[in-house]
Each structure stands twice: as structure tokens, then as C-alpha cells.
Amino acid sequence: PVRSVVDGFLALCAAEVSRLDGSDPDLWARSVTEWDRRNHPYPAAYSRLRQAEALLAKRSRSATAAKLLRQAYQVAQGLGAVPLTSEIRTLAGRARVSLEERGASTAAVTGSGGAGADELAVLTAREREVLAAVAEGLTNKEIGQRLFISERTIGVHVSHIFDKLQVRTRVQASAIFLRNRPA
Fold it and tell me: Could you tell me how far CA 82 lies from the centroid of its own chain?
């Protein structure tokens, strides 16, 4: 019985080591298989999260990544694994994958409140995500990696943000974001 669990951890460790060089989705798939075979739902859900993350980072098989995220999310919620659930939600949000929580996510976007929130109302949800990253001081390349879209697309979003907010610099756009962000 111990050897069986050790094999699961060996697969998990091999996949974790791959994260140093960009994360190998195949190693994560092996980890998922190993933990599913042993009926260990938490490490299996964690491995699904990381496999989805690896697939999204390589910009391949996004439908598979979405399915993996949904499966991991259901298991994490069933286990009451709050930190894992939160991490899955974060990745799903960045990748624009629905976890079947439409009501809650809509309330979060529209509930920004405050008198100055009107300044950001002209932006799309994706433009607000990009603006938040700009306000963190990230480059277009870093934002693209975080949101799984190309650097060029980020440039288009930034340009639209500047036009809509009627600003000329990232600093001016960031100031508007910071002034109007939810409390």
C-alpha cells in the first residue's frame, strides 16, 4: 500500500519539477491518472488544475483545459478545499473559463459601487482586467502571459483603454483605475 502512494507522489513531483521549465501537461495528466487510480481526490484535483494551467500557457487544447478546471472545481468544492477552490477560480477567471457560477460573477463585476465607478463603466470586462494589470506595473508581455493572450492583443486593449478613458499614458490610466477600484 505504501508503494502505491509513493508512485502517486513520484508522478506529482515529476510534474512539479516540470513547472521550472514551463510545465509539461503530459506529466500532469500522468499525475491525475495516478491519483484517480488511488482514489485520492485532492491531489487529483490539484493535478487537474496544474494540467489545465500548462495547457493554457501553451495556448493549446483550451476546451480540454476548461473541462479539467470544471472537474477540479467540483471536487475542490465537494472537499471544502477553500484555497484550492480559490486558485481554480483565479485561473478560470484569467482564462475566461466559466465554472457555472454566472450569477456570482455578474454580481462581482457590477457591484463595484461608488460614485467614481462610472469612469470605468465604459470599459469591457477584459479591458478592466488589462487595466488592473497595467496599474500593477506589468508590461504588455507580462499581461499577455497572465491572461493567456498575445502581447499584440494587449497593445490593442491598452490603446482602446486610452481612447475610452481619454488619457495618453499608462500612469494616467492607472491613476483612474486606482481612484475607481472597488474598496
Answer: 16
